[in-house]
Amino acid sequence: MRRSYERASSWDILPTGEFSDPSVWTPPAQSLGTRAIEARSQGSARVFMNAAGRKMVLESGLEGKVAAALLARRDVAMLQEQPTPVDFIDFEGRDRKHYFDFLATMSDGRRVAISVKPQARVTPRFREELFLIASQVDPRYAAGVLLVTDQAVPPKVVTDALILNSVMLDRDYEAYASLAEILRTFRAPTTIQYLGSMLRRRTSGFRAVVRLIGAGLLLRVDHSPLSIASRVRAADLVHVQEQP
Length: 244
Hints:
With 244 residues, the chain is of the alpha+beta class. It folds into two domains: 5-153, 3-Layer(aba) Sandwich (Trna Endonuclease, Chain: A, domain 1), CATH 3.40.1350; 170-234, Arc Repressor Mutant, subunit A (Orthogonal Bundle). The protein has six helices and twelve strands. The protein has helices at residues 61-71, 124-136, 155-167, 173-183, 192-197, 206-215; strands spanning 5-8, 47-51, 54-58, 76-81, 86-89, 95-98, 102-106, 111-116, 144-148, 190-191, 218-220, 231-234. The strands form four sheets. Strands 1-9-8-7-4 form a five-stranded mixed sheet. A three-stranded antiparallel sheet has the order 10-12-11. Strands 2-3 form a two-stranded antiparallel ribbon. A hairpin with a 5-residue loop joins β5 (86-89) and β6. α3 (155-167) crosses α6. The protein is elongated, with a radius of gyration of 20 Å. The protein starts with a strand and ends in a 10-residue tail after the last strand.
């Protein structure tokens, strides 16, 4: 993987890992980016996100979509935008520096350097240069290089990711505990709406159910956008009680 790059055309969105909720609200920590982003033209922009309590400064709307999708994956432990640049020698033999858009630390400890690019701008020359950079990346910096285009983040993926990231900030612990117990009696898949109705509360249980998806206690059965009609089942780690 070190001497090549993988192109992510699509991925199944995965929910986030555990989130540590503070007892009181605190402002987000500063960005981890190492490069200041300036609006150089009408075609560029600065995008700000709250990434699990930390401010994230991005260079485009596409980077924002990719960041949301990555932060919603349970196998991504940490995401840094605009990481330290890597040194490489270009085709003309000149010393150059390259800034990747993200450096993702996976749950198994591996790090992946990520380049974000609109598919329309992925030229043969760009591919060749990315291959060249990937072949020179120090394995201590990243285990591999990944190219992510807009094809990997269609509206469904982004919408689901934003919902998952949002509910992981909720603190309705009583609802989560009640739902976790309810899951022990379920063998067959059911809908988010039905599970939410089991809470017997005046407000919708949609967010509480989706948070259990984010926590890994529920698994999605279908690939339709998240809604009350989405079908889910208890994860294998949930012990299902035998009915008498």
